[in-house]
Amino acid sequence: MTVRVGVIGAGMIGQDHIRRLTGAVTGARVSAVTDIDQARAAEVAARVGAGALPTGADLIASPEVDAVLVTSWGPTHAEHVLNAVTAGKPVFCEKPLATTAEDCLRIVEAERAHGRRLVQVGFMRRFDVGYRQMKEVLTSGSIGAPLIVHCAHRNPTVPESYTSVMAAQDTAVHEIDVLRWLLDDEIVSAQVITPRATGKRFAHLKDPQIMLFETANGVRVDLEVFVNCQYGYDIQCETVGEEGLVRLPDPAAVGVRTAGHHESAVPQDWKGRFADAFDAEFREWIAAVATGSEPTGPSAWDGYAATVITDAAVRSLESGGTVVTVDMKPRPALYGGAA
Ligand SMILES: NC(=O)c1ccc[n+]([C@@H]2O[C@H](COP(=O)([O-])OP(=O)(O)OC[C@H]3O[C@@H](n4cnc5c(N)ncnc54)[C@H](O)[C@@H]3O)[C@@H](O)[C@H]2O)c1
Ligand SMILES: O[C@H]1[C@H](O)[C@@H](O)[C@H](O)[C@@H](O)[C@H]1O
Fold this sequence. Notes:
Blueprint: E1 3-8, H1 12-23, E2 28-34, H2 38-47, E3 51-52, H3 56-61, E4 67-70, H4 77-86, E5 91-93, H5 101-114, E6 119-121, H6 129-140, E7 146-154, H7 166-183, E8 187-193, E9 209-215, E10 220-226, E11 234-241, E12 245-247, E13 256-258, E14 261-263, H8 270-273, H9 275-290, H10 300-318, E15 324-325
């Protein structure tokens, strides 16, 4: 079966995923595209022989759409995901699932009412080979119980529209999700402190930030978020255990030695750094949709958890660095919990 995917939001990542679904992934085609910028929707749809539809609601209702991909702006995600779940269609939503915990819970409740999982959230790091190898090491027990995790999330630059709270909401949210998965543990508190700010930042922006998380098992995480580091897109993660440590590898890049120097390139953006992870993420999603199985990737519950933890980090930043306890509801049985 070829899965016919309808795409809501034909901007930067929407177009990247359309290219992926029509090139790198087998078993799928893009059958419909919508965007509030209708000229953009028409142009992108024409490129892949899809229909351009006026609204997300039209696209979800279309008999030409088996599954929905939401790549519009974050605050619009909840409406589209809820509509797709109500229509009983599988839906892949780029992060965030929703911008408020209340909206995430509405989606969780709609999915529970449906009785099985339909939603996958676009936390692609769970599909990255390096993170998957780290998880295998941690699960094998070879480094003993994890004690400390050191992370860095660096972007070369961000646009002026990026604000200080986005360091948690837009950027650290990837570590928040991948660490919950990697450690198979829950984050229970967050604290954000702000060192001397880089002179390369915009006046309104607190950059870099240091985020400290604690898990239910007592693991401590320190995360440097530095979104104007200038030199590249650099993702680091090292877990220290009782008997050893495991470190995320840098992406493979040739080393060049000339004139007494050794050089190798640093990726410049998330598109290059996580291209293979995005491909794997969509291959698995399409395979699940094609066979009528539940998705294997991050769930609506994971989307809720990430938003609640992000909210705690934002509250810490806004209160000048206090430790904020994460206020998470009990996990429902549909997502492996007892509630
Ligand atoms: N996983 C990742 O690493 C990653 C990377 C980049 C962006 N994202 C996420 O993807 C989403 C989109 O980001 P982007 O960088 O592509 O933004 P963008 O601004 O380039 O594109 C968003 C598009 O959605 C359209 N749109 C907005 N509201 C809409 C609506 N209600 N219905 C239809 N179309 C609508 C806009 O017109 C625009 O074309 C964001 O939630 C962002 O956080 C994730
Ligand atoms: O939306 C992007 C994207 O999620 C990237 O993966 C992250 O590194 C950026 O900081 C963020 O702005």
